[in-house]
Amino acid sequence: MSKSTVLHTSPEEKYETQIELYEGKYSSVYIGKLKNSPGEPTVVIKRNTNSVYALNEIKAYKKLNNSEKFLKVFDVCEKFTIVLERCMCNLQDIFELRRVFPEEQKNLAFQFLSGLNEIHEKKLVHRDIKMKNVLLTYDGVLKICDFESVTENDTFQQLKGRCTPGYVPLEVLISTKPLPVNFTQDLWAAGIVLMRIFTENIRLFSPSITNYETDIKLTTRIFGCPTGPFYESLPGYVQYYKWARSYKKNNIRENLEEWMSAHSVHEVDLVEQLLQVEPSERRTAFELLHASTFVVDPLPSVNLKGAIKRYMKKTKITRPPPHEAEEIDLKALDLKYKNEQGSSSGKGDSQSSSQQEGGH
Hints:
- By secondary structure, this protein is an alpha+beta fold.
- The chain folds into 2 domains: 11-86, Phosphorylase Kinase, domain 1, CATH 3.30.200.20; 89-310, Orthogonal Bundle (Transferase(Phosphotransferase), domain 1).
- It has 14 helices and 12 strands.
- The protein has helices at residues 11-14, 51-64, 91-96, 102-121, 170-174, 183-198, 212-223, 229-232, 237-244, 252-259, 265-272, 285-288, 305-315, 330-359; strands at residues 15-23, 27-34, 43-48, 73-77, 81-85, 89-90, 124-125, 134-136, 142-144, 151-152, 155-156, 180-181.
- The strands form 4 sheets. A 5-stranded antiparallel beta sheet has the order 1-2-3-5-4.
- It starts with 10 loop residues before the first helix and ends with a helix.
- Mean pLDDT is 86; it is low at 1-6 and 335-360.
- One of its GO terms (molecular function) is ATP binding.
- Belongs to the protein kinase superfamily. CMGC Ser/Thr protein kinase family. CDC2/CDKX subfamily.
- It holds the Pfam family Pkinase.
């Protein structure tokens, strides 16, 4: 990803930041608005401190080509700052209320799989799929966000450290060396997200996982110690097998049936087909969009107006005004910037040629 997508506009010149929503190792996120504009904040301003991750995110949004399944990008400024659409909440927030009905859960599940499928169709791996990285707009559109860790499919990169504990597949936890990053790792994390959608945010593990050491132990207790050529070839498997071999039974099916007792076998099947220990057996997002759960009663709700109304009433929030600017066309922006660079470069070349001719 070249730096040509980043404009020389200071975010402080154009935007006023107000409330900080999040501060992480590589970025800080605020709500804000255009300077001197009336009313409440209309956008989210993401300030990145790591240029590699910032450019990764811009590259991903370029590839996703302003799809409605992802956040609108209103601006890209210097200091690796991205100005994005403001949403109502993330998936974890809305399920804290425990008032999302089964047909609404199916709507969310279908939208989520549609977004993930579009990412994978572009040959991208998100690498940090989780509840907090799935947002919901005030119009009920679900949007996957936070593309700073994105990479192309089948590349050798470290997944540990980029993927949140509790969403990491067993093969990645076991291996002591980086594995090829591919769609199957996103699909495992998607299984965790769907399970939490259909159980109204019940976590797979309790207490909540905060590190990979706890993650691998609890995952093994539920899914058993895997065997076979794939796992036995992993670096670190011999050491893992010494303590894990006593966990012979995979208990995920009976656990899902208990946790998802309010749902039919169709929803249980949907989640189980993603939470397969063998990576090659995980169904793709495209395949699951055609799963039986989406064509049997209760059918997915047509929209999420009811869920949004209940959430806004409970949290006492109001809908912000629309942002005044249009979405930025990242491809056009890139081209414009290159043209400007080309013009400057051309002038420099002319001056250099004149000086050389004068020297002769």
